[in-house]
């Protein structure tokens, strides 16, 4: 897909031209210094890829932990953005007085008294269905469940 190609080209540009910034869709930016490529996520958080080399023969991206390509860079963005959304939701829930007991993948769990379940459910729904400022228009769906135990 085009987005994967755009990511790979921007990554390679940054690796080849240290100090120059390449920006693509959704505010994603790439730049490098000292063989480290930096990628700024839509949230503003920066990921770093160390010891980057571009193969002269194949054009393939190599870095400290193996090889990389556009689809892999995209997957890194998706997973990192998901983490950023969950982290913001945890902070928002905490600000509203809800204690977070556990996170599992894209789930946030709280322990609440039975009498507080409905109110807590409403707060979860409100917070987790609203996109962050850095991703307006992102479609989000929330499934909320309550039970006596997790699992």
How would you explain this protein's 3D organization?
The protein is of the alpha+beta class. It has a domain at about 1-80. Helices cover about 35% and strands about 20% of the residues. The chain is built from three helices and nine strands; from the N terminus they run αβββββββαββα. The chain has helices at about 1-15, 70-95, 115-130, and strands spanning about 20-25, 30-35, 35-40, 45-50, 55, 60-65, 65-70, 100-105, 105-110. The strands form three sheets. Strands 1-2-3-4 form a four-stranded antiparallel sheet, covered by helices on one side. A hairpin with a 2-residue loop joins β2 and β3 (about 35-40). α1 packs across α2 (about 70-95). The mean pLDDT is about 95.
What is the fold's blueprint, element by element?
Layout: H1 2-16, E1 22-23, E2 29-33, E3 36-40, E4 46-49, E5 53-54, E6 61-63, E7 66-68, H2 70-95, E8 102-104, E9 107-109, H3 117-128
Antiparallel strand pairs: 1-2, 2-3, 3-4, 5-6, 6-7, 8-9
Helix pairs in contact: 1-2, 2-3
């Amino acid at each position: 897909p085009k987005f994967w190609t755009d990511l790979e080209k921007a990554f390679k540009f940054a690796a080849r031209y240290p100090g120059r910034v390449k920006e693509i869709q959704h505010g994603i930016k790439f730049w490098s210094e000292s063989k480290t490529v930096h990628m700024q996520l839509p949230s503003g958080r920066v990921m770093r890829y160390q010891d980057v080399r571009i193969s002269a023969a194949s054009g393939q991206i190599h870095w400290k932990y193996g090889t990389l390509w556009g689809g892999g860079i995209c997957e890194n963005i998706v997973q990192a953005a998901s983490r950023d959304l969950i982290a913001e939701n945890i902070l928002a829930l905490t600000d509203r007085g809800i204690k977070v007991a556990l996170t599992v993948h894209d789930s946030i769990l709280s322990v609440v008294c039975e009498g507080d379940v409905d109110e807590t459910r409403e707060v979860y729904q409100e917070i987790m269905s609203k996109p962050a400022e850095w991703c307006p228009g992102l479609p989000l769906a929330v499934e909320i469940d309550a039970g006596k135990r997790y699992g």
